[in-house]
Amino acid sequence: MENSYIISLDQGTTSSRALLVDKNGQIIQIEQEEFEQIYPKSGWVEHNPKQILESQLRVCHKLIESTKVDVKNISAIGITNQRETTIVWDADTGEPIYNAIVWQDKRTSEYCEVLKEKGFTKYIRENTGLVVDSYFSGTKIKWILDNVEGSKEKAQQGKLRFGTVDSWLIWNLTNGEQHVTDYTNASRTLLYNINTLSWDAKLLEELQIPRNMLPEVKPSSSIFGEYEIKGVKIPIASVLGDQQAALFGQACLKKGEAKNTYGTGCFLLMNTGKKPQYSNNGLLTTIAWGLEGKVTYALEGSIFIAGAAVQWLRDEMRLIESAKETQQIAEDLEGENPVYVVPAFAGLGAPYWDMYSKGAIFGLTRDTGSRHIIKATLDSLAYQTRDILDAMQADAGFNLKRLKVDGGAAANNYLMQFQSNLLNKEVVRPKSIESTALGAAYMAGITVGIWTQEDVLESKNVDQVFEPTFTKKQRKKMYKGWKKAVKRTMNWDNNKK
Ligand SMILES: Nc1ncnc2c1ncn2[C@@H]1O[C@H](COP(=O)(O)OP(=O)(O)O)[C@@H](O)[C@H]1O
Ligand SMILES: O=P(O)(O)OC[C@H](O)CO
């Protein structure tokens, strides 16, 4: 145990990362590689599964080379991943039969309407904890089977495998020996019963998905297989969806504790303890993790576009050269900003769940410049978070004292201060905003006996606490403007209404 390390593989929406974590929970080194985002049609988002795998393997091996770590000292690998993204591959050849359909993809919206019309809303909510939305894997699997020639027959014959990104990686890391996933990833498929912890026969039947395509589901803290590096077999000792991993990495181990991760999207999760709590306000009920024989549940508010809106400013609008510069631009723009950006580029997630909403900019006048739009785009991350937090507090029946934050855009001081002002709460940022990767590492460390849950609780170092400074009047006025703007984007793209 003297020189014990964990490798955390963090397969995100825009990049694959590998982190080396030492036995004190310190990050020694991070390697990262971006990969291609494929947009074949409006509202469609795909990844090449081979690029996901190859970039993930490259950063893993680069990490070992750059740190010169002795692989014999790597005690375990933890995997955390973008959730819901759907891959179907041939069991014999291991070849994907279609690109990965990404969580943001909206192509199955119409079929979701059919599910709603057939009366599945209540059933899905009570059994999977989810809402009927194209976000989740189930309808994406159905789309692949309906649209890739010959796939339905192959699936019936047991010749196809489905996996979220974790399953795809593990299948390949173990040379096709293991077809597995964990509770957290399964709970995002629309096919998994979170009460009985089993695949749901009624939903499989409705979506015409053969049971034999689906992976075995294990607790997040388990041995999922072994990955051999330089002749050393390293156990894969944790798997968690990235948002659940961040909840664990932020040490939200007690009921009522919450974190918000500002990445491509924004995901606010609250630990709700050992029983699923259902929302009356458009939030999801999901599995937080399975650990030491127990299942912990969470309430989740999912925002589809957060940091991605900042990428849009950079790549499509070309108003900035880097995400980082938005902080200074927003801080320099004094006074009230009458502009609102609603980044509903992939519809609206919680609490609105409107697949037909489209993005819009409101409040333009003759003197509006790029600075106003940039600032309003950052503000939109905070407004969307306020929407979720209001819903969560209503469901929980109590008010949170503080919000723990992490993810790439949590580095932005302007945004964090505005967030605190808008929530009228402390916003607490840890020294390392790599909570996702750390969560998977901690969980793997617990599985192989390097750490305990108490060690995780003691691991948190605060970088900065942002304190609210707005008056009640200011807060109310600004939030009212946001609600008005959101309302006007809703149902925009629905031809039926
Ligand atoms: N300083 C910053 N200010 C605002 N947004 C930022 C900043 N740094 C990164 N981002 C945004 O955060 C996202 C990257 O965060 P990350 O946690 O790595 O995302 P993911 O895991 O979803 O790929 C990008 O969408 C980027 O635009
Ligand atoms: O890759 P991220 O960090 O944007 O997370 C994606 C989420 O898991 C989607 O549900």
TrEMBL record:
ADP binds at T13, R17, T264, G307, G408, N412. This is Glycerol kinase. It comes from the Bacteria. Pathway: Polyol metabolism; glycerol degradation via glycerol kinase pathway; sn-glycerol 3-phosphate from glycerol: step 1/1. Glycerol binds at R83, E84, Y135, D242, Q243. Residues 259-446 form the Carbohydrate kinase FGGY C-terminal domain. Keywords: ATP-binding, Glycerol metabolism, Kinase, Nucleotide-binding, Transferase. ATP binds at T13, T14, S15, T264, G307, Q311, G408. GO terms for biological process: glycerol catabolic process; glycerol-3-phosphate metabolic process. Its EC number is 2.7.1.30. Belongs to the FGGY kinase family. Inhibited by fructose 1,6-bisphosphate (FBP). NCBIfam families: glycerol_kin, PRK00047.1. Key enzyme in the regulation of glycerol uptake and metabolism. Catalyzes the phosphorylation of glycerol to yield sn-glycerol 3-phosphate.
